[in-house]
Queue: 4 jobs
Job 1
Amino acid sequence: MSVADRSMGLGIKALRGLAGLDVIDRVGLRSQAEQVVYTVTKQGFKGATAAGRTFSGGPTRDAAARAARPSSGRGLFDLTPTDEQQMLKEAMRDVAAGELRPAALDADTACAAPETILRQGVDLGLATLSVPEELDGAASEASAVTGVLVAEELARGDLGLAVALLAPAAVSTLLALHGDADQQSTYLPAFVGEEPPAAALAILEPRPLFDALSLETTATRTADGFVLRGVKSLVPRAADAELLVVAAALEGHGPALFLVEPGQAGGAVKVEAEPAMGARAAATGTITLDGVALPASALVAEGDPQVYRDVVRRARLGWCAVTVGCAQAVLDYVIPYVNERHAFGEPISHRQAVAFMVSDIAIEVGGMRLATYRAASRADQGEDFARETGLARRLCADKGSWIGSAGVQLLGGHGYTKEYPVERWYRDLRAAGVMEGALLV
């Protein structure tokens, strides 16, 4: 039986988006691609359109059966991707080079991702990669490493567009990892439908020296549930968001996560555009929560503080991943540039200062990647990864910024103009040190 015969409706559309890529044949992973896409696109929930969406999934299923299983691992720290991970990695790289990179400048200028790019993310099933198979998703097991590989490759095309594409996946991943049976049954089916919701993880607040464990957004208990008040900043695709996971300080408890449907909150949720220095294609905005009433079922994982810390760390790993991808884009760009650019009768790469700077970029990219992969691997092994995540984030924040600056320096006057992409990458690479939330692996 052909794949087309087995996959109907949404499956046919996703096949054209992922398994139809030429890169699948080039790396010899046609059979694995067909199997993965079939898993992702099995006939499932046909979601309501974005306008006026009401989340109402199918019957509640057993939570233990439907939660994405933790990765069993291979016993050793091994950087070799599985066949499925290699297929995804190559496919995302092809999309990044062929679709994201050409659209990046216009998207950065417009402070919004083109609809064609967002549709590409839907067709690739990005939001389904962490949704359990039992809910027609692609996840046989939870894998932070897979999430890191996907985010890294997309960011090689453009970091801002990568954030826009991966923002809904942050919410589906969180629900798959930590949502209860009712939350999963209500929301996850929409992410595998033909019109997955625009969704975002909102943690960051507009104040200096922000601490994710000390929030000013508050959640007050009521007889029926909770009331949220506060402001969240730099939320990707904020104006379009149909589902938010909001971090707030629960009265007498500490930081916790809440599911918020802006469309059902009336005027209590206000959104304003907030273009940032970098990642502008993600269409970031400020969300003001002015007495948003939520049912008791909106609280994620019963407010477990360990779950909140796990989400913060996985979000930071997501930012590390896109930073590595963007830094790799800088390296890929400057190597041919310094070899082809001539001054005083020879390529500028013959100058020792230039050659050493390019070498240092390569060294730092390798270190950032290794630290990020190590933290993600420990998360998949079920081991504590707080220290490793902290190290990866510090390395990516410091060295990512330096790599962006070095890229501009190597291009000289060209690096300071929008005709060349390094000035945009310089701005994007600053995000790793300041952003919280938005991404999740």
Job 2
Amino acid sequence: MESISAETAAGLQPPFPEGPAIGRQDALSEDTVRRITGFRAGDLPVVSMYMAIDPGDRRSIAAEADSLLHEVRLHSKDKGLEHDARLSLRQDIARIEDLVKNEIPIERGAAIFACSGAGLFEAVSLPRAVGTRVTIDAAPYVRPLLALLEAYERLLAVVVERQGAHLWEVYLGQERDAGRVKGPELRRFGAAGRRAHSPQHHDDKADRLEHQFFKDLVGALEHLSYDVLVFGGHEHELAHLLEMLPQQVSERTIGTFAIDPDTTTPAEIRERAQALLDERERERQHRLVDEVAESVAAGGRAALGLDSCLWAASVAAVDTLLVQAGATVPGVVCDESHWLATSGGACPVCGRETRPTNDVIEDLAETVIGEGGRVRHITEETVLNKHLTGASLRFPLPPDPRGE
């Protein structure tokens, strides 16, 4: 692994770059989710299947897939569906069975999206299982993928060690060696070393070398691509380094962990870094919900409750949507005006007949994404448990045409 400097860091690729799909299996990424979300099947059904994966037990994988596909088989025999829809479902079943038998992604979870009649077949490897389920609807069910992406920021773990610093990228439950920043053998100049070599010039040299190394390290960190940063190593070495961090690096530093760089493993670094990231996510979820609730109470640009958020998305007013993880509610959608609601046979905006949907919260999330907004899934216990959804708004809401 080549050494990283401030000069070479600027030319490095971002951690875990999002490359094109390989065959029919893809890695979870924002591009992948956006591509699947933008898929339109017309009048054909879309199968969305989520599975837990145990790479060492292929028999259980096949059994789980067969159980989930039972519902798809029932739909494929439904005489109430058009012939093309039933044919598409049968082709989906065959392709999913073939994938499970021969090419299932070797990860902790998998999401499969299929609509053979409209040319869709995507298998996405997941860093962890997100629940086992299958849905058959007019659009792909992507909320579990969105929730996963939200929970995994791009993290850079910097482990200060004897001959410099070792950098590790941690993203989507994986760690990857990101290179080293060379430096002096710092512990030769630690407290014990200074006691053994008492001359003052030794202390001065140690301080100069350490200061120069930290300066070089900070220079590299200013140019590398990451969302958040953590530092690991011996506490006495980290204290001085943290004092030297410039504001733009310090603002993205979320914590430190004490570790022996000589004996630690990549898996341990990932676990310690992920623990800091998980704590940050818990705090952020509470803050986001509190901000929306306080804004609603003060009459600000925010909405709380499903009906208000559905109307806000209908007029493209949602900046950030907060959704209680796991919540599902049936509703209706107008494909002409993009009006969303929990009920209503005719759209109050354009007068056209609405389309029923098994989960209007899924349509709500997809609408917000399509309008350039963000969606955050809340797993913590907050007031959102009662309201299911909340949102910060781009502008005050106009009156609801139904007078609600």
Job 3
Amino acid sequence: MTNGSALLRIGTRGSPLALAQAMETKRRLAGIHPDLADEAAIEIVVIKTTGDRIQDRALMEIGGKGLFTKEIEEALYDGSIDIAVHSMKDMPTVLPDGLGVRAILEREDARDAWFSREGLELQDLPSGAIVGSASLRRQAQIKHLRPDIEVVTFRGNVGTRLDKLARGEVDATVLAMAGLKRLGKADLATSALSIETMLPAVAQGAIGLEVRLDDKATLERIAPLNHHESAVCVETERALLAELDGSCRTPIAAYAEIEADGKICLTSLVALPDGKALHSDYREGFEPGALGKAAGKALKNKAGPEFFRALGGGS
């Protein structure tokens, strides 16, 4: 049930992190548009997605990234919301016709956070230790670095996973630093994993605002919220993902940074889920789409067709 007096309706998933991201968006909009400053002017509409309802299986078994966006995008289509707030790392590379992400908020810390019950770093875990992660990207990199430890699928929101860790279901786990910072829980982490140790997910730490492309009024509302540097980095990383036809079945990682002269530096990798094969690439350029595409092509060439056949794809 929506509030009929609201001037703008923001759609979001209902997890504490998703709500924090929606509230951040609301605050920023209220701060730049005087008519939205009243508390009731912007309504946050919670939408339960398939990905939220099914918590006992890995994402790749139930359909992949779109499971966190489908129902929210349907609400955009039918006009029950005006803006969808997404974690960009959850967004498929191809968006539905008529919808587009037209603002990227300033990116938060893109690194992964390491949690260990005994306070041990990844390299110090004893052989046979169990690490829990729902991400194939994290699983593959952990297995590549430490083939002697066990990695198990571990889903749930931040609080659920930390509770499971405290109960001893696993010895360690990995969460996104950005989400922890937005929830005020970053100090709970054992450490932040360096970009060199654990390359982040494509667009990790970035919030995207998706709207109907024919909704000119809302497009104008969100335009000032777009953070150019963050948007360029996200575009570069997502171009790589699109070239690799990436999905939840493919361990892909990428991180772009912009130097003072505007040059984009892109580090990327693709791996087998068991971590036994991992191929990386580094390149620089000035055009985000072209740079990401070139990196994707380079990884395809390095890995070769047999690698992608092993992943179950035809790339």
Job 4
Amino acid sequence: MAETFTYDNLIVGGDVVTDGAVLEAGQNLKRGAVLGKVDATGELKLSDDAATDGSQSVYAILNEDCDASGGAKRCAIIIAGEVNANSLIFGGNHTAASTKDAFRDLGIYLKEGE
């Protein structure tokens, strides 16, 4: 069976750089989720500005839907490129405005798209 791709406007310019990472158990996140990295484990989870485990700092963007509700799971992440700020899923009180500079430092550029 052939796979199909539904264009979702997440990627807005040129190429993106992707990598693999482990999503922390207990999460079921959609493509575009803004991820933070837990210092103690190196696993990723939805970044929350109120966290104190390292995940309060943005680290990457989830590049595919990933269901780790049954246990930690490897998934694809975006680590560099241009993405649509309006397609991102933020945790806590994070917003495009509050994370723009941190993402720029990582080589991820937030653009205003549809």
